[in-house]
Amino acid sequence: MGPEHVAYGMRVSYGLPYVTPDLVVAWERGVTSPSNPELTALAGVLWCSPGELLGRPRTLREHRMARGLAAEDVARAVGHELPAYLRMEESDDWRGTERQTAELSALLGLSLADFVTVTGRDGKLADLLRSAVTTRWQAYVRPIGKLCPLDRRILEDALQELHGDYHGQMVATLSWGGGESGSSASGREFLDRIVDHFWTRVGDRSPGGA
Fold this sequence. Notes:
Largest sheet: none
Low-confidence stretches: none
Mean pLDDT: 84
Structural class: mainly alpha
Number of strands: 0
Oligomer: single chain
Order of helices and strands: HHHHHHHHHHHHHH
Helix content: 55-70%
């Protein structure tokens, strides 16, 4: 189906008269994002689910839309006023109690890794993890624990393993004859993917049940 066919289907079948082929192309290129009703209509025209169009959700809004839920339903379920919840979606700044966080995670099927991402904490977590593996990891258990509510033993084990992996990789690169430049490149590559390494060690968990 070309953009003109998609636009026509959305206008005729879903009552969205303003949808043009140019708008469909803009969605395809990521220039703009469809609203919740537009995404539902687009999925209907293409005979798929909204989640299939989104790919892997990265934001709170995308996780909600992938589940086919209205913002009103999520706000009501977690006990927030709708305007307050919408502001959190727009800013990726979740502000909820422990109970509300557990409700949100269950409703949207969020893992702890998803939750950290949708609340905009990936960057801060990466900075803390890099410092932990390159210096004394013990000093970062508490600040990382505040960011990721995990059992302390699980967190300590993960940080200790990452610290050992990083320094072991640096030493191994030197012993293979890579020199300091090779060691630095290997270390940078490890640090660039430090968040992925962390979640691999920790495993899939929900924010409400570490």
